[in-house]
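Let us work through a complete example step by step.
Step 1: write down the sequence.
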Amino acid sequence: MAALLAALPAKGASAADVEAGKNAFARCRVCHTLAAGAGSTVGPNLHGVYGRKAGTAEGFRYSEAMKASGIVWDDDTLAHFLRDPKGTVPGNRMAFPGISDETELQNLLAFLKQAAQ
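Step 2: predict the structure and record it as tokens.
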């Protein structure tokens, strides 16, 4: 029994977290795509977002505020932005109020980290 418990992921069920994040991404999918080589829609394609400087994805017309933000996307910067997009980058055009539920946000980040590569 101890060996079985030791084999479980430390967080409990990380696959469930990713699956919950996939469900959370449904709200994002209205404006964003994740597929490599796919174009941008209302928002930029998020494929390769980790490590990318904000405002630089090919084929999307960003606000001057986003281009000048100096942000490089990682878990921390994405979390901060997704909690409060307008407060993090005043003048950006993302029409999204933010995610206040920390569990939902962490699940979404787990999904994005996997799906946006």
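Step 3: interpret the result. Helices lie at 2-7, 14-24, 64-67, 75-83, 85-88, 102-115.
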